[in-house]
Amino acid sequence: MPDALIAWLPYAVAGWVLLVGCIGIVTSNNYVHAVVCLGVVQSATYLLLLAIGWSPHATAPVFADTSTKAKVVDPVVQAMTLTDVVVGATVTALLLALTVQLAKQHGTINPDEVRSLERDQEDE
Amino acid sequence: MSTRLAGRLVLLALGVAGVAAVLVVGFGALPHFGDVSHGYGVRAVAASLSHRTANAVGSVTFDQRAFDTMGEELIMFAAATSAVMLLRRMRDEDEDEAEFGYGGEDVVGALRLTGTAFLPVTLLVGCYVIAHGHLTPGGGFQGGVVLATGMHLAYLAGDYKVLERLRPSSLLDIVESGAVAGYLAVGLIGLGLTGSFLANWVPLGSFGDLLSAGTVPVLNGLVGIEVGAALVLLVARFLDQALLIRGEGEDA
To answer: How confident is the model at residue A21 (pLDDT cuts 50, 70, 90)?
Structure first.
């Protein structure tokens, strides 16, 4: 039975992290919190990619001091994870910059208290 | 308001249940953990070794998928530029030069010593990680982040003015754009010399040497410069927001 559990556990964890992040975004009452939840959603993709790339008794795909005949894990998914991390970091920075502007224009970072971008400017 | 929240939660429950069901079906059809056959992985490792690149991940990123990495770099460039634009000083805002909130004299001696000692070490580590990106784990993206983070030790150990002297923003703008242009130039030279965009045109060297792997270390260096400069500029704008810029009627 433990073998069957191990066979699916990494995928199950990735799915759980994805869903828990989505729940966090929807129930969030703070944009900074929502941006962090988006980061949680993204980390599900890192888990899934690295879980797919893993193989038993394999080492890192770096041949600096290992034999070139050594069994290694899949470098393609690792490179994709790198892309994922970089894009995630820049999206986070952009969303946080938008949050700073929102706080300045509307005085709130609660999604429920922000209706439209124009309405507040008319009030001023 | 509470009915809106209740409605939202019902929609959320439906969506979560639906996605969970799709994931269970999808993951169920995947090979067991560890049993995946790595057709691409095996070929990527062979291609990496044939181009004398010790770090197969670096080879995939900057050689085999260099075109995708260019897209990734442009995404990063565009996002960093937009964030910097969003965080610029607005018409009704003043820069507060006098109040930094945190000055050189507030820094504890131990922090000042540690920061000063680690600043050059961290910058050196950043350069090392970039320069050895084709040999050991690391590369332009990772090393660029180390460089940019190390730079901010100057803020922790000294004050904001020290940091501002250390990072000339207008120069970094040019450096950042220049590094992106350099990546394109490496690709275009490859197109001219070999007929394929971003194809390798630098001598491959011998396996495991610092000068090996052809264009991989060149692209690593350019990406490292771009990431470092973009991150420093980005953090600069966020710090300005927190430390310098005051809106109307807002006291320091």
So the answer is: very high
> Three-class SS of residue B244?
coil
Tokens of B25: 């079906």
Contact between chains at A62 and B55 (C-beta distance less than 8 A): yes
Average pLDDT, chain B: 82
% residues pLDDT > 70 (chain A): 90
How far apart are the C-alpha atoms of B60 and B45, rounded to whole Å? 9
Q: How far apart are CA B6 and CA B1, in angstroms?
A: 9
Whether B4 is covered by a domain: the verdict is no
Cβ within 8 Å, pair A78-B237: no
Residue B232 counted as domain residue: yes
Residue B94 structural domain: 37-246
Q: ipTM value of the model?
A: 0.78
Placement of tokens 């944009």 in the chain: A31
A27–B86 C-beta distance less than 8 A: no
Inside any domain, residue B3: no
Four-CA torsion B228, B234, B235, B237, nearest 10 degrees: 150
Domains of chain A: 2-123 (1.10.287.3510)
Q: At residue B166, what are phi and psi to the nearest 5 degrees? A: -75, -25
Tokens of B249: 């009627």
pLDDT tens digits for range B215-230: 888 888 899 999 988 8
Among B45, B64, B88, B94, the residue to mutate for chain A (most A Cβ within 10 A): B45
Residue B112 within a domain: yes
Alpha-helical (H) ranges within chain B are 2-28, 39-50, 56-59, 66-86, 109-131, 140-151, 153-157, 160-166, 169-194, 215-243
CA dihedral B189, B192, B196, B198 (to 10 degrees): 0
pTM: 0.80
- Which residues of A fall within a CB distance of 8 Å from B60? 75-76, 78-79
Query: How many domains in chain B?
Result: 1
